[in-house]
Amino acid sequence: MSESIPTVDLSPFFGEGGDEDGKKKAKEVISQACSQYGFFQIRNHGVPPELLSRALELSKTFFGFSDDVKLKSSPGSAAPLPTGYSKRPEHAPDKSEYMLMFPPESGFNVYPENPPEFKEVLEDVFTHLTNLGSLIESIINECLGLPPNFLKEYNHDRSWDFMAAHHYFPATETDNNGLTEHEDPNCVTFVFQDQVGGLNVRKNCECEWIPVTPAQDTLVVNIGDVIQVLSNKKFKSATHKVVRPEGKSRFSYAFFYNLHGNNWVEPLSKFTEEIGEAPKYRGFLYKEYQALRMRNKTHPPAKPEDNINITHYAKCQ
């Protein structure tokens, strides 16, 4: 029987009765998952399931339009990330198209006119996932034993959060890569997907890939590079990829609970000098790292191994 990533019930964090035992059990599972995989799934997460289903339906409708129609929602030149509709370059290893947005109040957002309710649903999903990100961040804060509200105060600016609706094209006979193996640069990522599947996570540094099987009304959560660096690799930024199935398109959303670009990122003293451990990473300005990661997408290197990732800042041990 193949291994699966753990699923956590978040209902104790939403109830009025103060289910402390339920919270404790959830935090234990999350802490272990973040140490071992960097991935877990959540249910009873407070985001209406019908809203997530509607968002997937509308994205399928939008991506079904002709390229001429979709390109009317192309990114503006001033945005720090390509908001609106984009398609991976033909020579890129990743075979997908996507629709990206910043927070609803952002002036950078480019919304399609059709489907008519797409904008409203996208903004509703974004707001719910932002609130959920705050909860998961507070749980991670406790799991790491950090001072109360440490991550909340460190990461209080939500203007760099973003979300993308993805359409992965069906696999061909010679190529089934949808999204090349990578780690996310941000703090925490949420993913919800259709029933097609294809998301895989690598267990630690082993070559074992674990499929993240779509489950009704669940969200996938993964830890990003920022948390890995702050915790000096106590919590893992999981390596994951998307494998495209033959004969089927795959639709999903990824929400990136991000960090403001002007934040400095480096291992915290709690996980280094206070316990006699050497820092595994040198410090960096987050916007410089995000720019390098975005360049991987916009100007893919000839060799996948030349992609920039968090090892760019790793110290020799």
TrEMBL record:
Residues 159-259 form the Fe2OG dioxygenase domain. Keywords: Iron, Metal-binding, Oxidoreductase. This is Fe2OG dioxygenase domain-containing protein. It comes from the Eukaryota. Belongs to the iron/ascorbate-dependent oxidoreductase family. Gene3D superfamilies: B-lactam Antibiotic, Isopenicillin N Synthase, Chain. The lineage of its organism: Eukaryota, Viridiplantae, Streptophyta, Embryophyta, Tracheophyta. Transmembrane segments: none annotated. It holds the Pfam family 2OG-FeII_Oxy. Residues 1-22 are annotated as: Disordered. InterPro entries: DIOX_N (IPR026992), IPNS-like_FE2OG_OXY (IPR044861), IPNS-like_sf (IPR027443), Iron_ascorbate_oxido_reductase (IPR050231), Oxoglu/Fe-dep_dioxygenase_dom (IPR005123). One of its GO terms (molecular function) is oxidoreductase activity.
